[in-house]
Amino acid sequence: MDKPSPTTRDRLVNSAVFLFWDRGFAGTSMSDLLAHSDVNSGSFYHFFESKEALLREVLDWYIRGLRPYIAEPAFQAADEPIARIFAILAGYRERILQTNFRYGCPIGRLALEIDPENQPAHQLIAQNFKNWVGVVCECLDQVAHRMPKGTDLDAVATYVLVIMEGGVMLSRSYGSVEPFDRAVSQLREHFRLLLAPASKLASRPGRAGSKKQTARR
Amino acid sequence: MDKPSPTTRDRLVNSAVFLFWDRGFAGTSMSDLLAHSDVNSGSFYHFFESKEALLREVLDWYIRGLRPYIAEPAFQAADEPIARIFAILAGYRERILQTNFRYGCPIGRLALEIDPENQPAHQLIAQNFKNWVGVVCECLDQVAHRMPKGTDLDAVATYVLVIMEGGVMLSRSYGSVEPFDRAVSQLREHFRLLLAPASKLASRPGRAGSKKQTARR
User: Fold this and answer.
1) How many A-B residue pairs are in contact by the CB < 8 A criterion?
2) Can you tell me the ipTM of this complex?
C-alpha cells in the first residue's frame, strides 16, 4: 500500500491539538503545523483537504478524549456524585497551575475564535460542550431526589460548564487561580443551598410564593 | 502643527475595536487594519509603535467604556441593586440576539487568545474584568445586609462575571441564547437562595454545623 504511515496523520493531529491550543487557529500557520509535526505539505494534503478539515479532526479528538481524560480520572478520584463534579473542576484547577496560569480551555478558545460562519466546526465545538454537560448530568441524575422538584438538571450542568469556562478565562488574564477558586467556591455554595442534606428536611419550613415550595430538602 | 488629524487615530482605534472583536488579534493583519480604517502605514506608526500598542489602546478604550456602555444603561433600566446586575446581563443577552449569536465578549476572546507572555495586555484585560466586577460589587454592597454574614462580595461579583463570560461563549457555539439563559436563570436561583427576603427571617431555623448558621435571612 502506498499510503503514508498512519503515524504521520497522528503527528499532524497531535501538533494541531497543541498549536491550536497554544496559538489559536488563526495564529497557527500551515508552516507552523508542518514544522511542528515534521510532515511535508504533500503528506498533509493526503490526509486533510485544508486546515479547517484538520480543525474538525482536532475537535473530534477532544470529543473522544472526554471520557478517558476528563471524566474517568474524576470518577476514580471520588465516588459521591457531587464530589465527582468538583473533581472534574479540580482537574481544570490542576491544568491552570501546571501551565503556570497559561491554561485556556482549548474548546472555549476555539468557541470564541472560530468564525460563526464555520458551522461544521461550531457544531463540533457545541458537541464537545454538550457531551461535557452530559457527564455532569450523569452525576446530577444520581442526586436528583435531593433537588427541588422540577429542577432542570441539564440547566444545572450547563451552569457548571459555564462556570468552568469563565473561571479558566479569568484565571488566565489574572495570572492567578483565584478567580477560578472563587467561582468554584460559589458553585459549591450553590449546591449546598440546592441540595440541603436529607436529614434537615424535617426542620425546614416550605416557603410561600414559590413553586420551589414543594422542594424536597 | 504637523501631526495628522486626531480623527486618524480614532479611526485606527475604532477599526481595531471592531476587527479584534470580529477576527481576533492574530486574525487581524496590519493590512486589514489599514484598509478598514483607511489609514496609511506612515500614519499608523505615527500613533502606534506596533499592533500590540494598538491592542493596549483598544483595551483602554474598553476600560473607559464600561460605565457609559455597560453600567449606566443597566442602572437606568433598574433601581433595585440585584435587578441592576441582571440588567447588565440582559445587555449581553441583547448583544447575543442582535448579532445573531455571533457575539463573543471581546475581552473574553482576547483573554483566551493573547499570549500570556504579553503581560501589559493581560494586565489591561484583567483590569477590564476587575472594573466590571467592581460595578457588580457596588450593587451587592447595597444588599450586603441581606446576605449571609461574611459573604465575600467580590467573590460573588466574580462569579457573576464568570457566568456572563461562560454563557456568552456557549451561546456562540450553540448558535442559541439558551445556554446563556440557562446559566442566568441558575444565577437568579443562586441569588434567591442567598438573599431570602427579610420577611422570612423569623421563620427559618439556623443550620447546625455551618458557619452560615449566623446568616441573616
Assistant:
1) 176
2) 0.87
